[in-house]
Specification:
This protein has 2 helices and 2 strands; from the N terminus they run ββαα. By secondary structure, it is α+β, with helices and mostly antiparallel strands. Strands 1-2 form a two-stranded antiparallel ribbon. The longest helix is centred in the C-terminal third of the chain and has 30 residues. This is Small integral membrane protein 1 (Vel blood group). GO terms for molecular function: protein homodimerization activity.
Length: 78
Protein backbone atom coordinates (compact mmCIF):
# COMPACT_ATOMS: atom_id res chain seq x y z
CA UNK A 1 0.00 0.00 0.00
CA UNK A 2 1.00 3.60 -0.51
CA UNK A 3 1.95 5.71 2.52
CA UNK A 4 -0.75 8.11 3.67
CA UNK A 5 1.28 11.23 2.84
CA UNK A 6 1.49 10.32 -0.86
CA UNK A 7 -1.75 12.18 -1.64
CA UNK A 8 -3.48 9.21 -3.29
CA UNK A 9 -6.76 8.01 -1.88
CA UNK A 10 -8.57 4.92 -3.10
CA UNK A 11 -12.15 4.13 -2.16
CA UNK A 12 -14.52 1.40 -3.34
CA UNK A 13 -18.28 1.78 -3.28
CA UNK A 14 -20.11 -0.86 -1.26
CA UNK A 15 -21.80 -3.44 -3.47
CA UNK A 16 -21.03 -1.57 -6.68
CA UNK A 17 -18.49 -1.84 -9.43
CA UNK A 18 -17.42 1.81 -9.31
CA UNK A 19 -14.03 2.62 -7.91
CA UNK A 20 -12.75 6.09 -7.16
CA UNK A 21 -9.14 7.21 -7.09
CA UNK A 22 -8.30 10.72 -5.92
CA UNK A 23 -4.84 12.14 -6.51
CA UNK A 24 -3.65 15.25 -4.71
CA UNK A 25 -0.38 17.10 -5.13
CA UNK A 26 2.34 15.56 -3.00
CA UNK A 27 3.52 17.92 -0.32
CA UNK A 28 0.61 20.30 -0.73
CA UNK A 29 0.07 22.46 2.32
CA UNK A 30 -3.61 23.07 1.68
CA UNK A 31 -2.90 26.46 0.10
CA UNK A 32 -3.49 26.74 -3.62
CA UNK A 33 -0.73 28.27 -5.68
CA UNK A 34 -1.36 31.59 -7.37
CA UNK A 35 -1.71 29.87 -10.77
CA UNK A 36 -4.34 27.48 -9.36
CA UNK A 37 -6.29 30.37 -7.82
CA UNK A 38 -6.22 32.38 -11.07
CA UNK A 39 -7.16 29.30 -13.09
CA UNK A 40 -10.03 28.46 -10.73
CA UNK A 41 -11.33 32.02 -10.90
CA UNK A 42 -11.11 32.31 -14.70
CA UNK A 43 -12.52 28.84 -15.43
CA UNK A 44 -15.54 28.67 -13.13
CA UNK A 45 -18.67 30.65 -12.43
CA UNK A 46 -20.05 33.43 -14.60
CA UNK A 47 -16.59 34.77 -15.39
CA UNK A 48 -15.48 31.31 -16.54
CA UNK A 49 -18.51 30.94 -18.80
CA UNK A 50 -17.93 34.35 -20.37
CA UNK A 51 -14.22 33.57 -20.88
CA UNK A 52 -15.11 30.31 -22.63
CA UNK A 53 -17.68 32.04 -24.85
CA UNK A 54 -15.22 34.80 -25.79
CA UNK A 55 -12.50 32.24 -26.44
CA UNK A 56 -14.84 30.22 -28.63
CA UNK A 57 -15.83 33.30 -30.64
CA UNK A 58 -12.20 34.32 -31.08
CA UNK A 59 -11.29 30.80 -32.23
CA UNK A 60 -14.24 30.81 -34.67
CA UNK A 61 -13.12 34.07 -36.27
CA UNK A 62 -9.48 32.96 -36.52
CA UNK A 63 -10.51 29.75 -38.29
CA UNK A 64 -12.97 31.66 -40.49
CA UNK A 65 -10.37 34.21 -41.59
CA UNK A 66 -7.73 31.54 -42.23
CA UNK A 67 -10.25 29.57 -44.30
CA UNK A 68 -11.22 32.68 -46.26
CA UNK A 69 -7.61 33.52 -47.05
CA UNK A 70 -6.80 29.92 -47.96
CA UNK A 71 -9.90 29.67 -50.16
CA UNK A 72 -9.01 32.90 -51.91
CA UNK A 73 -5.58 31.66 -52.91
CA UNK A 74 -6.77 28.13 -53.81
CA UNK A 75 -9.59 29.34 -56.07
CA UNK A 76 -7.83 32.38 -57.48
CA UNK A 77 -8.18 32.71 -61.25
CA UNK A 78 -4.91 32.46 -63.16
Amino acid sequence: MQPQDSGIQYSRWDGGSRDAVHVAAVGSTGEASSWERISRKLCSGKLGISMKVLGGLALFWVVFILGYITGYYVHKCK
